[in-house]
């Protein structure tokens, strides 16, 4: 069992992240690498995408227990075996694949419409998601 | 150091005049009072001419007139020589210093003076240990002057009240940076850095001729260097534009304030503008809060069903005892095999062993996973509670944002109403008021455009700088790879190291002086400011831009009153004197010209306080030397001198009048 000490993104993803930073989408300039990664992960968890290249993005020592909980939840969304939780490598690889898809989705947001209104569109999307929950 | 005496001979209105500044009270404070056009500003020009051979405060009228006194010019015959002299006597605790400039002119047939010579002399008499008198002339005297009152920071000795007001509006960072450079004495170091830079490029070119790879990397670096330089220039230009707009806005504002009948509207407009700025800052913060909320809640809302699912699974495993204790499966297996408790070392009987075997069969998880499940249980519960509050929290932020935007619209509409009223204004001054108003509106728009442009250019410059560093590494790599030209490479390495060291030293010196000046300016400003507990912190950024934080954490330099701006400039000046060690006097022309109301006396009291430690020579017009100002100064003055013109209006009459 590998014991990875960092989380990776694809090399090309840096271009997408730079664009998000340049536009300061969702105040991303003030977000840490870890926070950006988790956000992308939640956008892309339904269709994980394997990384074609690997570029270190942040060290796992920066993850606190709540962040790790999100990682396990993300994994459990499509896997039934909680025994895998002990395999850090499996959990991180899956998280990286979800985030990888998430970054592509963010890139599509940019391509699909006016950046000025993107924050508000994301809020509407968030509200739609929320309304569908059984709360 | 203080000015003891100034002597003028044939210099403009000053035909043969001498003024002595004798300290007769605890305050080293002197006032010269004169109407406009009499010669206050030429007094300041005379000092500048004597020291630096220039007259920076000449008005349009004086620019066309000769420096030679007009009466003496009339009295002379064609071909006669006329001498113009200004002499300043300075005194320190141990030295008396005479600085004099003498220019000789000949009267020509067109009745204009033609300059024949110009000599500058400094005499220093050192009273310690009878060291005698040293005399320096021309170049030697200039070198000596640079030690006593360097030209680069002369504006910190001889002020103009107008500039005091605009000090931190005009070229804020540029001015501060150049003065810090001057007092840091790093000019020579910077010359060396420039020379090393040239050598660096020269040697890189030489190496480029030896290898095509190096040449390509060098060209790439050169290209990005050109782009970087171009962006730096554009940024500089943009800063200039911002400075011009700020000055024009200030100029229009001052003009409009001066119009009695619209003063009230002007004050209201200024106050609305300040409110608008505060609201817009709050909108900015609230928008960021909303953006952070959307980003964080996207994760929470997306994973909400899985938080619940996983939490339910943990709870069910826990209830059915399927979660092992925090002892590993392996440890339990070892206990069974050795029949001994690994913790207390006591032997276990068969029934106890069977119990453990039975339990072990129940556990369907590894201990690592079970520990994780136990650990994340609390986080999952929190996430569920937090997610359920999404609408409540986002609703609150949106409502607050909406309120702020309504306030923003309301204030904008109030400003717009005043703008419409001002643009319709009709009286004798109508055209001027309209122009001033339009000038302000246009420059306010330009200012916004250029501030945004400045941000974009800074971003581009930042990118170019990163690319430059990357390409520089690539060039270094190619040079390192090259096996030829060992000697050239050694020389280049040496130049590069020297360049790096010189740059580091220069930056360290500048940073140290900048921090000292910041601390000192803050200390003086907070000591003097009459609005105690209003301001929290003074910044002097790495770009040498001064900033002031209000106690509510908002930046407030732009909303300071004229008096507070002048006080800040005075505090900066005094800090510069203290840090640089130039214990020079301050000569200020029309110090309260742009200040009105109660703040005039506030600032006058600050000047009075300053004069306990430093010589202050202040020039006033009769209107400016009003009763409230007089009350501040009259009991503490060391001397009071009235300047007026004689009948021919060509010569000054000085009247020492300690009223």
3D structure, described in words:
The complex is a heterodimer of chains A (135) and B (659). Chain A has one domain. Helices cover 54% and strands 7% of the residues of chain A. Chain A is built from five helices and two strands; from the N terminus they run βααβααα. In chain A, strands 1-2 form a two-stranded antiparallel ribbon. The longest helix of chain A is centred in the C-terminal third of the chain and has 24 residues, at 88-111. Chain A is globular and about 45 Å long. Chain B has 659 residues and is an alpha/beta fold. Chain B contains 18 helices and 14 strands. In chain B, the strands form three sheets. In chain B, strands 2-1-4-5-6-7 form a six-stranded antiparallel β-sheet. A six-stranded mixed β-sheet of chain B has the order 8-11-12-3-13-14, sandwiched between helices. The two termini of chain B are 27 Å apart. The interface between A and B is large, with 38 and 39 residues.
> What is the number of beta strands of chain A?
2
Structural class of chain B: alpha/beta
Sheet of most strands of chain B: 6 strands, antiparallel
| SSE class of chain A | mainly alpha
Instruction: Output the radius of gyration of chain B.
Output: 37 Å
Strand order of the largest sheet of chain A: 1-2
User: Which spans of chain A of ≥5 residues are poorly predicted at pLDDT below 50?
Assistant: none
- Give the topology string of chain A: H per helix, E per strand: EHHEHHH
Q: Strand share of the residues of chain B? A: 15-25%
Strand order of the largest sheet of chain B: 2-1-4-5-6-7
Specify which chain pair forms the largest interface.
A-B, 38 and 39 residues
- Could you tell me the strand content of chain A as a percent range? 5-15%
Shape summary of chain B: elongated
Q: Roughly how many Å apart are the termini of chain B? A: 27 Å
List the main descriptive attributes of the protein structure presented here:
heterodimer; A: 135 residues; mainly alpha; 5 helices; 54% helix; globular; B: alpha/beta; Rossmann fold; six-stranded mixed beta sheet; 18 helices; 60% helix
């Amino acid at each position: 069992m590998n014991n990875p000490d960092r989380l990776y993104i694809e090399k090309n993803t840096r271009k997408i992240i730079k664009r998000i930073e340049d536009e300061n989408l969702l105040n991303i300039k003030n977000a840490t690498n870890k926070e950006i990664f988790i956000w992308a992960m939640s956008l892309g968890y339904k269709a994980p995408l394997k990384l074609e290249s690997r570029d270190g993005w942040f060290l796992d020592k920066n993850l606190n227990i709540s962040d790790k909980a999100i990682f396990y939840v993300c994994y459990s969304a499509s896997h039934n075996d909680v025994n895998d939780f002990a395999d850090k490598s499996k959990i991180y690889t899956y998280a990286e694949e979800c985030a990888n898809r998430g970054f592509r989705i963010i890139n599509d947001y940019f391509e699909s419409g006016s950046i000025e209104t993107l924050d508000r569109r994301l809020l509407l999307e968030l509200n739609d998601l929320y309304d569908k929950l059984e709360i | 150091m203080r000015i003891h005496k100034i002597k003028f001979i044939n210099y403009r209105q000053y035909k043969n005049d001498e003024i002595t500044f004798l300290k007769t009270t605890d305050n080293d404070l002197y006032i010269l009072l004169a109407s406009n056009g009499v010669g206050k500003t030429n007094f300041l020009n005379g000092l500048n001419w004597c020291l630096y051979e220039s007259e920076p405060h000449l008005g349009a009228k004086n620019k066309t007139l000769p420096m030679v006194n007009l009466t003496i010019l009339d009295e002379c015959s064609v071909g006669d020589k006329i001498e113009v002299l200004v002499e300043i006597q300075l005194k320190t605790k141990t030295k008396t210093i005479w600085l004099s400039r003498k220019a000789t002119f000949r009267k020509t047939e067109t009745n204009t003076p033609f300059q024949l010579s110009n000599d500058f002399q400094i005499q220093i008499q050192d009273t310690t240990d009878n060291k005698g008198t040293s005399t320096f002339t021309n170049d030697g005297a200039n070198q000596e002057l640079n030690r006593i009152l360097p030209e680069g920071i002369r504006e910190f000795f001889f002020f103009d009240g107008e500039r005091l007001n605009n000090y931190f509006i005009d070229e804020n960072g540029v001015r501060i940076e150049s003065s810090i450079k001057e007092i840091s004495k790093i000019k020579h170091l910077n010359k060396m850095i420039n020379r090393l830079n040239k050598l660096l490029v020269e040697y890189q070119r030489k190496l480029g001729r030896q290898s095509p790879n190096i040449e390509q990397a060098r060209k790439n670096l050169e290209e990005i260097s050109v782009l970087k330089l171009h962006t730096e220039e554009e940024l500089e230009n943009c800063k200039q534009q911002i400075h011009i707009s700020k000055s024009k806005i200030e100029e229009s504002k001052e003009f409009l304030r001066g119009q009695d009948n619209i003063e009230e509207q002007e004050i209201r407009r200024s106050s609305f503008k300040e409110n608008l700025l505060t609201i817009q800052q709050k909108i900015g913060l609230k928008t960021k809060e909303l953006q952070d909320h959307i980003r964080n809640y996207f994760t929470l809302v997306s994973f909400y069903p899985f938080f619940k699912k996983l939490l339910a699974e943990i709870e069910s495993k826990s209830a059915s005892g399927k979660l092992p204790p925090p002892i590993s499966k392996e440890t339990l297996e070892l206990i069974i095999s050795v029949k001994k408790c690994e913790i207390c070392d006591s032997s276990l009987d068969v029934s106890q062993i069977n119990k453990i075997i039975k339990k072990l069969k129940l556990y369907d998880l590894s201990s690592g996973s079970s520990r994780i499940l136990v650990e994340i249980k609390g986080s999952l519960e929190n996430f569920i509670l937090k997610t359920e509050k999404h609408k409540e929290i986002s609703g609150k932020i949106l409502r607050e944002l909406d309120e702020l935007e309504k306030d923003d619209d309301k204030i904008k509409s109030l400003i717009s109403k005043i703008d419409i009223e001002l643009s319709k204004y009709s009286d004798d001054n109508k055209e001027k008021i309209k122009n001033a108003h339009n000038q302000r509106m246009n420059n306010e728009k330009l200012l916004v455009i250029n501030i945004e442009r400045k941000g974009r250019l800074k971003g581009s410059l930042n990118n170019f700088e990163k690319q430059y560093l990357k390409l520089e590494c690539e060039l270094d790599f190619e040079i390192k790879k090259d096996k030829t030209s060992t000697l050239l490479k050694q020389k280049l390495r040496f130049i590069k190291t020297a360049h790096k060291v010189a740059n580091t030293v220069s930056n360290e010196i500048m940073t140290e002086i900048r921090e000292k000046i910041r601390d000192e300016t803050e200390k003086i400003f907070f000591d003097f400011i009459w609005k105690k507990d209003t301001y929290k912190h003074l910044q002097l950024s790495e770009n040498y831009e001064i900033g002031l934080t209000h106690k509510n954490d908002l930046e407030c330099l732009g909303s300071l009153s004229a008096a507070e701006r002048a006080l800040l400039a005075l505090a900066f000046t005094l800090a510069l004197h203290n840090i640089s060690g130039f214990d020079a006097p301050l000569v200020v022309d029309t110090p309260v010209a742009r200040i009105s109301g109660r703040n005039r006396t506030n600032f006058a009291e600050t000047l009075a306080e300053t004069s306990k430690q430093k010589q202050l020579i202040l020039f006033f017009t009769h209107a400016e030397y009003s009763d409230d100002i007089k009350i501040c100064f009259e009991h503490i003055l060391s001397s009071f001198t009235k300047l007026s013109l004689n009948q021919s209006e060509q010569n000054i009459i000085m009247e020492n009048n300690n009223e």
